[in-house]
Amino acid sequence: MIKLSDSAREYLDRYLQQIRTYLRGCKTVDADEVERNIIEHIDSELEGATAAVSLEQLDAVLKRLGSPRQWIPEEELPWWRKMIFRLRTGPEDWRLAYISFGLLIAGFVILPSFIVLIAASFIVARAALSEAGDPSELKAQKWLIYPSLIIVYSFVLFWLLAWPAFVFTAAAYEWEHNFRSSTYLQFADDLCYWTVATSFIIAGLGFWWMILGGLLLRWRSFLQVLFKPFAAWFSRKWALILLLIGLGIMIPSLGLGICYGIYGQITVL
Amino acid sequence: MQRYILADMNNSFLDNWATQLRKGMLELCILNAIRGTSLYGYDIVRKLRSIDGLVIGEGTIYPILSRLKREGFVQTSIAESKEGPPRKYYELTAKGQATLSKMNDYWQAIKTGTDVLKGEQTS
């Protein structure tokens, strides 16, 4: 090994460290062998130096060798290095996709921050979606973007469809505990009360679906934007089907609740 | 002339194209450099240096040599050196020779086809 000045030695150590860092995990290449070859290359280049090699002399050789970062094609890097590489140097859309996926994973790992991290992951995923423009251009990125979109969309869809059930159930509980005994309508027992209440809750749900179907008949693009890119198929036909299902649920449930009340157990004081 | 053309590649499209072309060409040139002989890694680099525009970072050659060795296209042997410590020499294996022959045929076919296309344009 040739004799190096202290500054050149430090510089070479940093360079060799870079080689180890960039080649680590690359299965197609033996990182130790490459490092040995590079040392031999530097020895050969500086062979014949009479005094200790200066930083400038070494720098000229290392410049010709180039940055180890550029030695391995991206497709040969292990997945985690590709991820870091794309985060640092990749196009904006890939960076966003990786950040979105990273936040999602972090959300599952750091459970106390689950909601915040999933929300952040969702926002970044939507940004990546906007960056891509046409969702069909996403290609492999969709595997990184879609998980957080699906989680948030499932949650939003559930509440969009089911919120009246929760609101009316809460109202029925409230009414049972605070007003049931003080009204003119008296129920024979709790079963009677909850049978009628459930009928009206389901009827309320059907009513909401009917309204939602009607609104989406007029503004279906709202749903397509809200659930982009999964709701592109949603046409007026599906809005009409939702409206009819709502109607189909509301009428029998309302009828059942009224009939049960009239012919059953309710006494009007 | 060739040096002038490559120096003019400040356009990102051309840069990208040249990078893609170099990737495959480097392997072909390394294998051809050691065809029928055995060379020390640094000697391979020196040989390839003479091809203008082929080697941008000389270090690129060593991971390729390592990969070619892993894939069984080249083998190494250690030999004593007059100048210093023992050196590692690379030479083609039988598999490497057969593959190189096919690679050269393929490259020749592409080059011939390209030349024909260029000829059609100029005539």
Describe the structure.
The complex is a heterodimer of chains A (about 270) and B (about 120). Chain A has about 270 residues and is an all-alpha fold. Chain A contains ten helices and two strands, in the order H-H-H-H-H-H-H-E-H-H-H-E. Chain A has helices at about 5-25, 30-45, 55-65, 80-90, 90-110, 115-130, 140-180, 190-220, 220-225, 235-265, and strands spanning about 185, 265-269. Chain A is elongated, with a radius of gyration of 33 Å. The mean pLDDT of chain A is about 85. Chain B is mainly alpha-helical. Chain B has five helices and three strands; from the N terminus they run H-H-E-H-H-E-E-H. In chain B, strand 2 (about 75-80) and strand 3 (about 85-90) form a beta hairpin. The longest helix of chain B is centred in the last third of the chain and has 29 residues, at about 95-120. The model of chain B has no long low-confidence stretch (mean pLDDT about 85). The interface between A and B is medium-sized, with 26 and 22 residues.
